[in-house]
Design brief:
Elements (H helix, E strand, L loop, with lengths): L3 H12 L13 H17 L7 E11 L2 H14 L5 E6 L2 E9 L2 H14 L5 E7 L5 H4 L1
Antiparallel strand pairs: 1-3, 1-4, 2-3
């Protein structure tokens, strides 16, 4: 009996663990849930903590004169009716900002168009924007 026990131990050590295959079966609905979560993560990466989207606008004027700001806004609206303009007041100045751009490159391209008509101090600024992304844009 004393000889049999060491022989069994040595034989199990020499043979080692056998190689088995493991087959995992997962529910196909998990793939759909993973895709939905990835989409939600991409969308939330583009948002601020208040639920608005991060983006860019063009600032065309920063002046203490409300009249000058309103004149600039109406001039931009008449030349570019498809772009939304914003008149903001941050004491003591009025600002006119234009557009809702998700990417800085898009804002820069529009800045070049805007600078042809309004060459003075038009620059790209980060801002929260009005934007509703389409699902295909996030993929």
């Amino acid at each position: 009996m004393d000889v049999l026990l060491p022989i069994l131990l040595v034989s199990s050590w020499v043979s080692g663990p056998s190689q088995d295959t493991i087959v995992l079966q997962r529910d196909p609905r998990l793939d759909v849930l993973v895709q939905k979560q990835a989409l939600a993560n991409k969308r939330s990466a583009m948002m601020t903590s208040t639920g608005q989207y991060k983006g860019y606008r063009l600032q065309t004027i920063n002046s203490p004169s409300r009249t000058a700001a309103e004149q600039m806004r109406s001039a931009i609206m008449s030349r570019f009716p498809d772009q939304k303009t914003y008149l903001q007041f941050q004491s003591p100045n009025f600002r006119v900002r234009v557009g809702n751009f998700l990417r800085k490159e898009d804002a820069e391209n529009f800045r070049k168009q805007l600078a042809r008509f309004f060459p003075e101090n038009v620059y790209v600024v980060e801002d929260t924007i009005e934007y509703l992304p389409k699902d295909e844009e996030l993929q």
